[in-house]
Amino acid sequence: NAGVTQTPKFQVLKTGQSMTLQCAQDMNHNSMYWYRQDPGMGLRLIYYSASEGTTDKGEVPNGYNVSRLNKREFSLRLESAAPSQTSVYFCASTRLAGGPQTQYFGPGTRLLVL
Amino acid sequence: TQLLEQSPQFLSIQEGENLTVYCNSSSVFSSLQWYRQEPGEGPVLLVTVVTGGEVKKLKRLTFQFGDARKDSSLHITAAQPGDTGLYLCAGGVLTNTGNQFYFGTGTSLTVIP
User: Fold this and answer.
1) Strand (E) positions, chain B?
2) Which residues in chain A touch residue B29, judged by CB atoms under 8 angstroms apart?
3) What is the 8-class DSSP label of residue A97?
4) Pairing of strands A10-13, A109-113
5) A48–B104: do the CB atoms touch at under 8 Å?
6) What is the dihedral of CA B98, B50, B45, B104, to 10 degrees?
């Protein structure tokens, strides 16, 4: 099993460009999450999907949209990238939506917005 | 809003020393997790604690959840270079739409051989 995979690994965008970050898990997990990690800030939740067909906002959703394409895939879209969105983005999944679940993280996507 | 504060932010110690990392909040969490993150990789779960006052040991690592479920600590005995990494605590909040996890600011540990 590959676990959680993310593409691309690295990306450089110009301000105003759009892009979609892809995430897939092969563990048959129900819930998936998108975080961003900035120096000194830990990880902050952008959006999450408790189950297929549902999505909800996290702490920092502004400037992002998500799609839970199916049970395996959860994508994050930046419609008009801004320098403030320069960050490392992590996707994670958990088996269930409730309870003290283990989060399994992907390797991250490093995004630079110029 | 940063719900979880970790201290210290940076820690550099000699091999064999002991250390404690703290994770504090004014909020109550249904569970508290500790992760370790290596450069260029995603965080990996070390432990989950769910009961106030709970203590868990993982070899040389001891984790404690505060009685009020608002804070936690990670104690490492006889640190080794392999313990080097970023340690993150994460508090779980169960909502009617699922789990939300709030991460601490992180503690970057360097163990010098």
Assistant:
1) 5-7, 10-14, 19-24, 31-37, 44-49, 55-58, 61-65, 71-76, 85-95, 98-103, 107-112
2) none
3) S
4) parallel
5) no
6) 80
Tokens of B79: 């640190």
Q: For A1-114, where are the alpha helices, taking DSSP H only?
A: none
Q: What is the pLDDT along chain A (114 residues), one digit of tens a residue?
A: 679 999 999 999 999 999 999 999 999 999 999 999 998 778 999 999 988 889 999 989 999 999 998 999 999 999 999 999 999 999 999 987 667 788 999 999 999 999
Would you call B43 and A43 a contact, using CB atoms and an 8 Å cutoff? yes
User: What tens digit of pLDDT does each residue of B40-94 get?
Assistant: 899 999 999 989 999 999 999 999 999 999 999 999 999 999 999 999 999 988 8
pLDDT per residue over B83-110, tens digit each?
Answer: 999 999 999 888 777 778 899 989 999 9
DSSP string, B9-28: SEEEEETT--EEEEEE-SS-
Q: Which residues of A touch B4 (CB under 8 A)?
A: 42
From chain A, the residues in CB contact with B108 under 8 A are none
